[in-house]
Every structure is written in structure tokens, then in C-alpha cells.
Amino acid sequence: xxxxxxxxxxxxxxxxxxxxxxxxxxxxxxxxxxxxxxxxxxxxxxxxxxxxxxxxxxxxxxxxxxxxxxxxxxxxxxxxxxxxxxxxxxxxxxxxxxxxxxxxxxxxxxxxxxxxxxxxxxxxxxxxxxxxxxxxxxxxxxxxxxxxxxxxxxxxxxxxxxxxxxxxxxxxxxxxxxxxxxxxxxxxxxxxxxxxxxxxxxxxxxxxxxxxxxxxxxxxxxxxxxxxxxxxxx
Length: 234
Fold this sequence. Notes:
Number of strands: 2
Distance between the termini: 48 Å
Number of helices: 8
Helix content: over 70%
Low-confidence stretches: none
Strand content: under 5%
Radius of gyration: 24 Å
Largest sheet: 2 strands, antiparallel
Strand order of the largest sheet: 1-2
Structural class: mainly alpha
């Protein structure tokens, strides 16, 4: 009986503490609402002068916090590395896709190049509209997922080429950041012409960064999909 009372008491105390924290956080957010709006306007002004990107979110991701983006890409790489190491431990291979779907195979033959083209479009136009390297890279990888699902063992992936593209894009990504330091004295400094806002060739170095990110994300997700589909028994 005393145990039940103790549990109820803990529950009541925890609920009160959580409620107090929620109310406090809401109060803080409401008080800083005006400041947040002013910061957003200042960011848009800086975007007009330093990047001239039609998509201000792109400027934040690749320019103002490019070092954080590098960390995000590194986390993705480490995740793929860990999965490949764990799955590669075993010796017996098996494909988890045993049944072939002819309707899916016919659809993939039509959709595969369209999805790839759409993914490339999302990557290249990331500075003009919602999208960019991360989104476009995943879309490109989804085309390969459909192909794996449709053809199973009848499709093989050249790991050397995919790994080379992943390494090349990662090296180019870091090199772009270093060039920004050398030329503009800041990581991912905009050392290319800004162009005119709204044009494809604009926003300086941002489209270049997104191309490298898109290529790297696509390569890593494709490898991840292949590792899971070509699973291995322990």
C-alpha cells in the first residue's frame, strides 16, 4: 500500500515539475518572440548582401553555419561506416528480397531516370527553391532503392565507384571550406561571383556546396540501402 502511495507521489511531483518547465519555456519563447523576428529580418538583410540566395534557408545551412553542415555529413558517414562494419562481420550472404514483382520491374524502368533527374534538379536548384543537397541526395538514392526492390539479386552495385564518388565529394566539400578560409578569411567564405538573385548561376559558392553534399549523401544512402538489402546472416 505504501509503495503505491510512493509511486503516486513521484508521479504527481514529476508532473508538476514538467508542467512548470513547459510553462517557463513558453514564457521565455513568448518574451523572445520579438527578438526572434528581428533576428530573422537581419538574417534576410545579410543574405541579400553576402549570398543573394533566393532561398534564405540555404544560406543558413551552407554559408552561415557551414561548419555544422560538415558535422552533419560526417555523422552520416560514420553511421554508414558503422553499419557496413557490423554487417560485414559475417560470412554467409543472403538477399532479403526473394520474390520478384514484374509490375514493379516495369515501373522502375520508366521511373528510375525520372527520379534521378528530379533529384539532380532538387540539388542544383537548392539555392532558388526548397530543397538542396540533402533532399536531392535522398531522392536520387530512392531511385536505387526501387531498383533493388524490383530486381533483387539481378542487380549489382559497384562499390568502388560509389565509394570513390563519396570520397571525392567529401574531399571537395572540405576543400571548398578551406578555400573560403584562404580567400575570404572564413570557413566556406563566398569566393565566387554572387550573380543575380533568382538566376541559376547565383549565390556564389552555395550551389557548389550543395552539389558536393548531394553527391555525398546520395552515395552514402545508396551504400546503406545496399548493405541492408544484401544482408548477411550471422
